[in-house]
Amino acid sequence: QVQLVESGGGLVQPGGSLRLSCAASGIIFSSNVMGWYRQAPGKQRELVARLTSGGRTYYKDSVRGRFTISNAENTVYLQMNNLKPEDTAVYYCNTVPGDIYPWGQGTQVTVSS
User: Are the beta carbons of 2 and 95 closer than 8 angstroms?
Assistant: First the structure.
């Protein structure tokens, strides 16, 4: 049974940093592309970063250079630096595409002064 549990969100001032974690049980990383998504109020969920089993990464233009996706064992991380108010959203991890496994509860990131 696949379970995705995100953590690490919180309230941070603009320019601050957070590290999100996603404990992914039941997913074989070597067989899947893993991604971090986010959903802001009133907007659709969007992919912000993905990581292939071979280590190739992709980032949404607005986060490239500020966010870094990585993984270790069964956990996917998203290091977020120089956060901006427009990064405020609920962040989720899942495979890419994200239509195979159930979504977790996500973790709220709020960037505000």
Answer: no
